[in-house]
Design brief:
Blueprint lengths: L1 E6 L5 H16 L4 E6 L11 H9 L16 H4 L2 E4 L2 H10 L8 E3 H5 L15 H23 L2
Parallel strand pairs: 1-2, 1-3, 3-4
Helix pairs in contact: 1-6, 2-6
Length: 152
Amino acid sequence: MKLLFVCMGNICRSPTVAAVARVEFVRAGISVDVDSAGTERYHVGASADRRSIAIAEANGYPLASHRARQVCAADFSRFDHLLVMDRINHRALLGIAPKAARERVALFLPFAGIDGPVELPDPYYGGQADFQRALDLARDGIGALIERLSGS
């Protein structure tokens, strides 16, 4: 299985979720190819936000080597699921998705099996607690996704 996690700039939420997914899927013994991207090109080539890196790495999720990228046309054929962090970016991704790929675009937390919240809030304009909340939701979502995939 191949999963692409998507947010706006690919420097906070989606790379954090991807970092958590890489570690937790290995721990669960599930083979999944994981990547992340943004709907916008604001930060292409940049590192993840330093606050995201600090929180992720303090929790055992390597993120320092991440470089932001924008969703590209090939992503719609390369990935089985394109999992988006919020409704705004969900609409943006659906707006550029080929018709045949639209059914594979979904909001991350509901897709994983989380009933609420529906969106993973963007911590960019917040403080440390907001970045920790994003990491906690990433971990909850990936945990639920592992349960879903393993049939537990």
